[in-house]
C-alpha cells in the first residue's frame, strides 16, 4: 500500500521481530520465569488510572 502521507507510510512499514527463534528447547525454569513476568506486565486492560 502506498501512502502520500510520510507518517502513515512509516507506520505501515514498521515491523518488529522479537527473540531468537532457534529450534532448541527452553528449560522449564526459564519458561516459568517468563510466564510469571508476563502476568505482571502492563497492558491496556490492566493499567491503573
Strand and helix map with partners:
Elements: H1 6-13, H2 28-40
Characterize the structure shown.
The model has no long low-confidence stretch (mean pLDDT 81). This protein has 2 helices and no strands. The radius of gyration is 18 Å and the shape is elongated. The longest helix is centred in the C-terminal third of the chain and has 13 residues, at 28-40. The N and C termini lie far apart (37 Å). The protein is 43% helix and 0% strand. By secondary structure, it is mainly alpha-helical.
Throw out a few tags for this protein.
49 residues, mainly alpha, 2 helices
Unreliably modeled segments: none
* Proportion of residues in β-strands: under 5%
- Main pleated sheet: none
Task: Based on Cα principal axes, name the global outline.
Answer: elongated
Task: Output the structural class.
Answer: mainly alpha
Q: Helical percent range?
A: 40-55%
The termini sit apart by 37 Å
Round the Cα radius of gyration to an integer and report it.
18 Å
H/I helix tally? 2
Q: What oligomeric arrangement do these chains adopt? A: single chain
Mean pLDDT: 81
Q: Work out the number of β strands.
A: 0
> What order do the SSEs take from the amino end to the carboxyl end, as H and E?
HH
Give a quick rundown of the structure.
The protein has helices at residues 6-13, 28-40. The longest helix is centred in the last third of the chain and has 13 residues, at 28-40. By secondary structure, the protein is an all-alpha fold.
